[in-house]
Amino acid sequence: MTRVRWDPRAAGFGLLLGALAAVLAVRHPLGSAGALTVIAAVGVAAFRWPLLALAAPVALLPVAGLAPWTGWLLVEEFDLLLLASMAGGWAALAMGRAGAPQPQRAPTRGWARWVLPLLLATWAVALWRGLGDAGGLSWGWWQGYRDPLNSVRLAKPLPAAILWWCLWRAMLRRDADGAHMALQRGAAMALALAGMVVVWERAAFPGLLNFSSDYRTTAMFWEMHVGGAALDGFLALALPLAAHHAWHARNRWESSVALAGLALAGYVALTTFSRIVYLAVPAGLAVMLLLHARAPSAGATTSRSFWAAAGAAVVLFAAGAAWLFPGSGHRGLLAWLGCWLVWVPLAAWAPALPRAGWAAGVAMGLPLAALAAGAAMLLPKGPYLVHAMSVAATVTLLWRLPQAGQDGHPRRPDAARTLPWVAAGAMCCASSALHVAWHWGGEPGLQRALLPIGSLAALLAVLAFSRREPSPIPLRWQGMLMAALLAVAGLVAVFSGGAYMGERMAGTRGDLDGRTQHWQRSLAMLRDDAAHWLGLGSGRYVEHYAMAAHDDRPGDYRLAQEPGNQYLVLAGGRHVQGWGEILRVSQRLAIPHGSLQVRLRVRAYAPTVLHVDVCRKHLLYDAGCQVGSLRVADTAGQWQSHAIVLKGAPLPTVGLPVPAVFSVGLESPGVSAQIDDVALVDSNGQDQLRNGHFEQGLARWLFSSDRHHMPWHAKNMAVHLWVEQGLLGLAAFGTAVLLALLRLGVGPGRGHPLAPALAGGIVGLLIVGSVDSLLDMPRVAWLVLVWCLVALDLRATSPSRPAVSPERSAARG
User: Is the dihedral of CA 156, 158, 161, 162 positive or negative?
Assistant: First the structure.
């Protein structure tokens, strides 16, 4: 056994990171005790399982941002998570818990050694220019997007990514396979967590299958409080790597869990209603598949034949779904998907069953189908229940089928006993799907369903009487195909189930024209050579745009002080102040009961209209509000106390638990007001707000704008970099991305198993970045830089493993 030496440098580094995490946790707006407990648990877990230090920041990234509850902008929970994970990981290295470094596993320095100095140099210049442009460094926990520390906020991702990357390289020397698996599992877990949040969000607000409402998913990416594509960029980056993990999972159960997470991610992508996501995600997956296909491998010919069959299946499913949907809606579409869930694996097994076996299956299936139809007529929502039970029972039988013998061929005697029952179950699935279509759409629905379901049955019959060798499809192939069919079903539902997405697609040309004008206005802020080459400085886009856009200047807010008192200053934007355009400062709370009254003190130097509301809301879109307003005259510099009774129906408290959001803003453009001692009093006389006196700064308060987003983002990654870091910063970042793609596609990393997925993620990210900034959102920017740094170091140290064909995969079970 190799004796591991104590590493004092790693120990000191871990201690420093842990201390920094503790210092920040002490300042957490929701309480230091909870924050310290969580980071301690994370650090201990990372010390106990060192690879968790790599996986945890990626896995928890979608949920490690609580700004709507805390009001934190400069620092967020992800920063604490990263620091605690890195502290535990470096402590584990210092104590030898990650194993001894293996010289033969030492990663090469790769191309990162050439790129990192460029990135760091332009990063340092942008930070220096940003702080100088803002008037110098001044500390304040509650500074906003137009204040000096926004330069630090947007500069954080690069050193944070390098911090993770250094631990990644250290782990590669000890357990390269484990490090690679940690990254894959982190991406898969991140998508699953984001998916679970989105399922709650959609179920609680517009409805899981409501594709007509003007509601775009945001999950827990609070950075979208003033628009932006944080969720879009995250999906584009992570989906290819999660798909790779699902394909290469080490056992059936891990594969099942990964595929379920992938299905959730597909739902998330669909409910963004983002045209660029609908382009970026398929493009990224296509790049991944193309790079996989380029690798020479044993069994590649057979694999290609299966890919061709899968492609044909997707086309047939899409055609049937599009034909069936107008007659039987979402329920018919789900029934159609249920039939495919049964018939895909059955089609592969069909030649293994002799004609007598098929006759027995039909003989059993007819009375079972009749019995199921009778039960469906008697039960409430019977057709849906019977179809679900038929699919579940048949899938259970298929699960029990033997995968293959040692020679890779199916064990016919074992299959022959089960396949007649599977055939009978498939008949029940088909008949119950027709019943679903008739129940929902009447005779027109049934007539539309007959063609696709009858065609599928005919195709199965052809396969059953063919003389080809049966070839059972392993679970991972079935899962990937079903995930593709589920995505197609979602697209059909989105485009056929409501007018919202059709309207968005119809408005693409107008939106592109608007973005082009916005990019031109953004670049017009660069008024001298220094600005063109070096940029305006990190974090300075919002301030400069606000000062330059006289008619489109957004609202603002800030914390102000006078002797013995802190208060909130609100400024109305100069644009039209509609319901969705008001800049609100908000606080989350439990849904209050009874009549509500807002009490506050106001000071104004010009007449203005104050707006207050309490809404059932997640981040941007409300689902019912109680609203009030107050006309405030010039108070001549004196504080005045007011009470506003809110009007509107009480917020519903039934259904899934959802937060209420109290907001205050100005309806009058171009004026300001000062606000203090805000209270939301319910019918019991209880104040529902916290920190309404602003004694704790802006803790628990976060600003947002539902619809007015352009002034907050450059809406293009290249334009954003050009404005804030100049042409030199844009060239440095572009060089890093280009070299990363070259290394993955044609360079030393092309034979690495992760290369196709990383390349697909980066390509998808660039597509999203063509219409959004992305790098002005620290969590997303960190993930972008991590992907690039891993890619720049990736190297195929051994020959690529052969691509696994379905037959060989089945032989392994």
Answer: negative
Q: How far apart are CA 585 and CA 567, in angstroms?
A: 13
Q: Which residue has the tokens 């996989």?
A: 292
In sign, the C-alpha dihedral spanning 553, 714, 112, 728 is negative
Are residues 750 and 798 in contact, defined by beta-carbon separation less than 8 angstroms?
no
> What CATH code is assigned to 555-707?
2.60.120.260
pLDDT at 109 (0 to 100) = 59
- How many beta carbons lie within 10 A of that of residue 61, not counting itself? 27
Beta bridge partners of 566: 561
The rounded distance, in Å, linking the Cα atoms of 191 and 65 is: 15
Are residues 693 and 567 in contact, defined by beta-carbon separation less than 8 angstroms? no
Cα–Cα distance for residue pair 604/631, rounded to 1 Å:
11
Q: Using alpha carbons only, give the angle 326, 330, 335 rounded to the nearest 5 degrees.
A: 105
What whole-number distance in Å separates Cα of residue 631 and Cα of residue 344? 66
For residues 581 and 666, the answer to whether their CB atoms sit within 8 Å is no
Tokens of 294: 């380029």
Q: What is the DSSP string of 73-105?
A: SSS-HHHHHHHHHHHHHHHHHHHTTT----GGG
Tokens encoding 100: 């001894």
Q: Where are the domains of the chain?
A: 1-100, 123-295+499-553+715-813, 328-473, 555-707
- Given a contact cutoff of 8 angstroms between Cβ atoms, the answer to whether 736 and 118 are in contact is yes
Is the separation of the CB atoms in 70 and 15 below 8 Å? no
DSSP letters for 449-476 = HHHHHHHHHHHHHHHHT--SPP-PPPHH
Give the pLDDT of residue 441: 84
Burial class (CB in 10 A: 0-12, 13-18, 19+), 557: buried
Give the mean pLDDT per block of 10 residues along the chain (813 residues).
70 95 96 96 96 97 96 96 97 83 58 87 97 92 94 97 96 92 95 95 88 86 94 96 86 78 88 89 90 61 64 87 84 86 77 72 80 78 83 80 45 63 84 86 86 84 66 66 80 72 70 91 95 97 90 90 94 88 95 92 94 93 92 90 94 82 95 96 93 96 92 96 97 96 91 94 96 96 97 72 42 39
The one-letter amino acid at 262: L
Helices (H), 173-274: 176-204, 230-247, 252-271
pTM metric for this prediction:
0.86
Q: Are 678 and 570 in contact (CB under 8 A)?
A: no
Angle at 505 between CA 504 and CA 506, to 5 degrees: 90
* 3 state SS of 414: helix
Q: Find all residues with CB under 8 Å of 380, minimum gap 6, and list them.
A: none
